[in-house]
Write a structure and sequence with these properties.
The complex is a heterodimer. By secondary structure, chain A is an all-beta fold. Chain A contains no helices and eleven strands. Chain A is globular, with a radius of gyration of 13 Å. The chains are: A mainly beta, B mainly beta.
């Protein structure tokens, strides 16, 4: 199976919360990341979490890490149409290559 | 805020031709990376570079690929003889030092091989 797995699509209404999930297999990962990619654009780092943390909150974004289950989630509160994009989960050890999931396409309808 | 830049933004080439993709990493960064994303697929690691040598490479990075830091600012990816399957978006990234967590990505070069 894939090293980093994500569901491919998520559709929500504007104003709702979005939760994007990710699982990974390598427990030696030091950092876990969420990147956002808008159509035709590059990769924008949204947030990251160090593996010894359970949760990180940054404005509308909440990252939860369950290290035992190797499960990472990104919650976007009050989702806006501008949040429509592909969200990539990624992991690495410090300074090493990032391993990405296939991305979750978030579609926000008004 | 400093950023990683890449040129060109788009390149079209004929199969078998050589291409050079250019990146200018953030000036005080020490680690450099190339990734690629085939249309509709995930981002894949190609190679990392530190202290003027390759530190890590993936199976994708075969003899057709090479990287170079020809001067103090540019970081290049060369594909010697392009194939149709090299068509992808190529991203450069840089990292300040190994103790930092964040690789900063450039906007990408979209390569189309005909």
């Amino acid at each position: 199976g894939e090293d980093v797995e994500q569901s491919l699509f998520l559709s929500v209404r504007e104003g709702d919360s979005s939760v994007i999930n990710c699982t990974y297999t390598d427990s030696s990962s030091t950092y876990l990341y969420w990147y956002k990619q808008e159509p035709g654009a590059g990769l924008q780092l949204l947030t990251y979490i160090f593996s010894n943390m359970d949760m990180k909150q940054d404005q509308r974004l909440t990252v939860l890490l369950n290290k035992k289950d190797k499960h990472l989630s990104l919650r976007i509160a009050d989702t806006q149409t501008g949040d429509s994009a592909i969200y990539f989960c990624a992991r690495n050890q410090a300074g090493t290559a990032l391993i990405f999931g296939k991305g979750t396409t978030l579609s926000v309808s008004s | 805020e400093p950023e990683v830049t890449q040129t060109p933004s788009h390149q079209v080439t004929q199969m078998g031709q050589e291409v050079i993709l250019r990146c200018v990493p953030i000036s005080n960064h020490l680690y450099f990376y190339w990734y690629r994303q085939i249309l509709g697929q995930k981002v894949e690691f190609l190679v990392s570079f530190y202290n003027n040598e390759i530190s890590e490479k993936s199976e994708i990075f075969d003899d057709q690929f090479s990287v170079e830091r020809p001067d103090g600012s540019n970081f290049t990816l060369k594909i010697r003889s392009t194939k149709l399957e090299d068509s992808a978006m190529y991203f450069c990234a840089s990292l300040r030092d190994q103790g930092r967590e964040t690789q900063y990505f450039g906007p990408g070069t979209r390569l189309l091989v005909l």
